[in-house]
Amino acid sequence: MSIPNSTDGANTRPTLVLKGQAAEMTVDLGGGSIADFHLGEDGINPLAWDSRMFAPDPNAVSAMKPRPFGHFLCLDRWGSASDAEKANGMTDHGEAGSVWWEVIKDPVSQKGVIETSMAASLPTAGIRVERRIQLLDAEAVFLATESITNDNAIGRIYNIVQHPSIAGIFLDEKTVVDCNGTTGFTQHETLPNPQERVVQWPNALNDQDQSVDIRFLGEDTEPEVVSYVVEDEYGWVTAVSPSTGLLFGYLWKSDEFPWINLWRNAKDGRPFARGLEFGTSGLHRPGHDLVATGKIFDKAIYRYIDAQETQTFRYVSFLVNIPGGYAGVASVNYDGKTITIEEAGGKGRTFSLMASDLFQKAEPAKQTPLDSRKEII
């Protein structure tokens, strides 16, 4: 297996690097996270987030052990495992961010696209994930296609949620998050009736029942997690950093990912991390609570996958340099060839990214046997 070089302190972590003319990206194979996505040779990485920052003693966390970085995958669940599952070794957010991923296809450049693929097996969940990444050479755009296969002898429920977290110099009090979520609720008041106190984007209610505009983040992170449904054909979420002159965002089909989940975190009186999460669930609870609840706002909060079945999901990510005084994003549209980003605040400034047929029907992943961890350590 090919392992390009990347450093983590005094240790070398196995990574996969894709380089285009417009942008570069890095996938960390110890957990499969997209750890870096930046413009040009040395641009700013919005995904400068490391789960080690949240450990009681970050220095005690093994530098080489698989762990989540900037954009990691929540699979086979979003949120906590049940007490019984934890006793059997299941982790919060599932195993995808804590196992080694194997490179199936080294990066290859052809017809203006740099393409690679990788895979991981989740031993406790009995699920396999294969991911294909296509980075456009001339645009700061990549498409990720993830095929989920149930290797169990029986069908089961599961969830897949993308967990991009912005941090570092990209995130400050001026960073503004926009999306096309509509009706929502806060996670701290989820059960028994998560629809009891409805909010509408971009507002949410804190513990004192005060309305909060969660486009922004200061020192107060209440409410910490708010979930919204997507009603348009395509869902999108963006983060604009006036301090760095950079716009970062995602686009996906809402029939694949009907939920947007926004997580906020502050430390020492300033923004520390923000999650721009989107996926198949809006309820941050163990499986028994998902089944008992069924749906929220008439949207499913889990998926069913049959024995040996493969289900495929796709999303696009993009970067854009923005001018001074940029007010945030009013809309992100895709017409089958072009992604068009329109500025909020009535200024009407737009950016267009030539993206071609990104959401063409994907073929199921090939069942490539995974080798054991010993090959990459």
Describe the structure.
There is one protein chain. The protein has a single domain, classed as Beta-galactosidase, Chain A, domain 5 (Distorted Sandwich), CATH 2.70.98.10. The strands form seven sheets. Strands 6, 11, 13, 14, 17, 20, 21 and 24 form an eight-stranded antiparallel sheet that branches. The longest helix has 7 residues. The N terminus and C terminus are likely disordered. The radius of gyration is 20 Å and the shape is globular. It has 377 residues and is mostly beta strands. Helix content is 3%, strand content 46%. It has two helices and 28 strands.
If classified by CATH, what would the architecture be? Distorted Sandwich
Shape type:
globular
The topology string of helices and strands comes to EEEEEEHEEEEEEEEEEEEEEEHEEEEEEE
The fraction of residues assigned to DSSP E strands is: over 45%
What is the residue-mean pLDDT, rounded to a whole number? 90
Share of helix, binned = under 10%
Q: Taking Cα atoms only, what radius of gyration do you get, to the nearest Å? A: 20 Å
Number of domains: 1
Distance between the termini: 11 Å
Structural class: mainly beta
Main sheet specs: 8 strands, antiparallel
CATH topology: Beta-galactosidase, Chain A, domain 5
**Could you name the ranges where pLDDT drops below 50 across 5 or more consecutive residues?**
1-10, 364-377
Strand tally: 28
CATH class: Mainly Beta
- Number of helical stretches of at least 4 residues: 2
